[in-house]
Amino acid sequence: MYRDGKGVPQSSEVAVKWFRKAAEQENAKAQYNLGVMYYEGESVPQSDEEAVKWYRKSAEQGLADAQYNLGFMYHKGKGVPQSDGEAVKWYTKSAEQENAKAQFNLAYMYGNGHGVPQSDEDAITWLKKSAEQGNQRAQAKLGEMSQKV
């Protein structure tokens, strides 16, 4: 509420305070939101390491958006050593919960053999799942691929 100013005056500083209180009580959504604020440097010092810490806590509780973000951090080596294997692990957990961005990134990993054996079949499977959810990047990629056939 405070972060978006819904029903109260917008205040990122107050949002951080309440997210932290809830995050410390193992609230997965608050942990995720705190991770986002650290990643973006919103009312806290920007810190990829702190973002990873909170994303991980949330991801381990099964929150798909946190799993995607943690996968992204491993994929890009932000706040953690770069690891395609770890990226695939977290993208897969998120993709299996219908996260379209995770499905798209997982398709990329399979298509290029990053962290998994290269597999056009698996890449297309995940790309289709992402596209079916309205992911425009996945739709465009499928369109490009169909023109090459």
TrEMBL record:
InterPro entries found in the cross-reference section: Sel1-like, Sel1_AlgK, TPR-like_helical_dom_sf
Record SMART domains: SEL1 (SM00671)
PANTHER family: ERAD-ASSOCIATED E3 UBIQUITIN-PROTEIN LIGASE COMPONENT HRD3 (PTHR11102:SF160), SEL-1-LIKE PROTEIN (PTHR11102)
Family: Belongs to the sel-1 family.
Full protein name: Sel1 repeat family protein
Native species: Plectus sambesii
Lineage of the species this protein comes from: Eukaryota, Metazoa, Ecdysozoa, Nematoda, Chromadorea
